[in-house]
Design a protein that fits this description.
Blueprint lengths: L12 H4 L9 E10 L5 H19 L8 E8 L2 E8 L5 H14 L3 E8 L5 E2 L1
Antiparallel strand pairs: 1-3, 1-4, 2-3, 4-5
Amino acid sequence: MGSCTSDDQLLTEEGSGFVPPPFVNISVELVSNRVFDPKKNASNLKIVKDTVDDYSKTEGIKYPSDNIKQSIVDHGGKFAVLFEIEDDARCDEVRRFIRGAKQHSKELSYAVLKCDGEKTQIL
């Protein structure tokens, strides 16, 4: 039982039948309660990022911030940050994280979540 024969197949991704989940493009727009004012973009961005960072630390969740593109947007007159996730994140995990972060902070009004192949969701 403890010896290998030449008929044994190495378990590799290719040989195991494992199919990795398809890469899903995910974007999240976190809309704050603050009025969009270009002069306050830097401070408002810090508030939103601190909210996300604080929640992730509280929950012990690590997110690869170097794989997340961030940009400031005017969302209907409100300050918002668009996060474009360039990683193998799963939409349900991102959804759960965003819901928690939103509940954790009075700064966030709502979030718009877009995942490839799914309807856009307002959280």
